């Protein structure tokens, strides 16, 4: 076992001479074997080791016995020992987490703080080869997109690294090591319960896998390392494509171009969706799985130009013509208003509206000034002032500059692919008599056109919020 672990450490460059190792020791056979192993390793290379133990307060007297066992063994080996009594139940209720999620959060937040306090270089955990097999099977069963890569051998953590040198060996190796060296340990009775998927795999599936391949843990570890490298490349490709299709990215909203998304190779489209959902889930704690990604794919395949999808944790995906909008709707201040009251426009003046800002100012009379993308010019003497800005109304129609007849605003919004959620908030500028003279960013009317005879001219500019 020693040779296998040392070879694994060397191959992955997990530990260096002079490292301060913070060992996460629970009191079970795996972590107790790890404590003994690294205590002995100090005879071969200079190391400093400390032990961190977390009492999650979930198993009553059994938890206390674990803490006492680890403390006693650390005293025997003359190793610094640190205890954290976590309030898992309080965090679970506060954050709405499962018991396991809350326990893990408590544990690793404390580990990070303790590493910084002690100046430790590495956090070492006793995850072994059987844990790797269980994890990869569990993620495959759940349909995790990146589950094939399994438990990483090492990853950045706090100001140093989290390393797992025991992935090279099986649990039976560690139990035999404890037996051979007379190392005390406690068994966690909760590992035998069928409440958790990991336990069911361990107790009912793992033995079958090992019957077929006694070295299954080595095969799974090899696959995990290969897939981790491939995953890194695929992730970088997904990020590269995503950066080219995102048209707007905010804390609670990301918008992508659908025509550009469809150009992405099919093999990466799901990863790009996963990546964008992950942008939103960092604070939202959405556990993204296969069903969420396939739901978004289904939304894209919907033939209707507009559609809405609701995912867990207030996550909403909206298809709106050439755009796909990912957003979080989790608080009252984020709920969009659905209307605004009509307002008179002062000349000159500036008016704040739900989607943008409308500015009016006098301008020089030039016949070529009538309309641009975000601005419009009117002959004041041909207008029935004051101008009014309001939301659309049922049956609204307007004339278009340079055309005969009129058209419904409803048809204009559809032709210009204005998102449904914006239509009731889109500004409509009318004169005193209610005649529509301008729909910002879309069309101006044939009213009050500036010509060579115009004397007084006003310029209206609409600046949409970004």
UniProtKB/TrEMBL annotation:
Any one GO CC term of the record: cytoplasm
Chain sites annotated for binding ATP: 26-31
BP-aspect Gene Ontology terms: tRNA modification
Major site of localization recorded for this protein: cytoplasm
InterPro entries per record: Lysidine-tRNA-synth_C, Rossmann-like_a/b/a_fold, TilS/TtcA_N, tRNA_Ile_lys_synt, tRNA_Ile_lys_synt_N, tRNA_Ile_lys_synt_subst-bd
Chemical reaction(s) catalysed: cytidine(34) in tRNA(Ile2) + L-lysine + ATP = lysidine(34) in tRNA(Ile2) + AMP + diphosphate + H(+)
Keywords attached to this entry: ATP-binding, Cytoplasm, Ligase, Nucleotide-binding, tRNA processing
NCBIfam families: lysidine_TilS_C, lysidine_TilS_N
Family membership: Belongs to the tRNA(Ile)-lysidine synthase family.
Summary of the function given for this chain in its UniProt record: Ligates lysine onto the cytidine present at position 34 of the AUA codon-specific tRNA(Ile) that contains the anticodon CAU, in an ATP-dependent manner. Cytidine is converted to lysidine, thus changing the amino acid specificity of the tRNA from methionine to isoleucine.
Entry protein name: tRNA(Ile)-lysidine synthase
Gene name in the database record: tilS
